[in-house]
Structures are given as structure tokens and as C-alpha cells.
Design goal:
mainly alpha, elongated
Length: about 70
């Protein structure tokens, strides 16, 4: 990963690494209730569009229950 960061930096790009859980928690806090509802609806629509199996949808629901 550090090689990629160095390569991107040489091209004028700054790369920041964050743990996805921490980043997502921050973003969800910033977008507010309406944004969180939109995010969850978008996930649902994406799952339908990708025709994911029931098990994947069930696993997603279990994750939501833990939050």
C-alpha cells in the first residue's frame, strides 16, 4: 500500500488511509437522519439490482440490527 501512496503522491495526489468502519461512522453522523435513510435505501436498491440471493439480504439485515 505504501508503494501505491508514494506513486500517487509523485503524481500530485494525496492519499489518506482510514479504517472503513471509522470513516463510515463519521460520514453517517455528518449526513444526518435523512442521509442515513437515503444511504440504506440505496443499499437495498443495489442489492435488488444485483439480484443478490436471500442469504446476502439476510446477512445485511443482521448487520443493521447490530448497529
Amino acid at each position: 500500500m505504501s508503494k501505491r501512496i508514494d506513486r500517487e503522491f509523485k503524481h500530485g495526489m494525496n492519499v489518506y488511509l482510514l479504517e472503513s468502519d471509522s470513516f463510515l461512522a463519521l460520514v453517517l453522523a455528518l449526513i444526518g437522519e435523512a442521509g442515513r435513510q437515503h444511504y440504506l435505501k440505496s443499499i437495498e436498491e443495489g442489492m435488488v439490482m444485483m439480484n443478490l440471493p436471500f442469504e446476502s439480504k439476510r446477512d445485511w439485515a443482521k448487520l443493521l440490527e447490530e448497529v
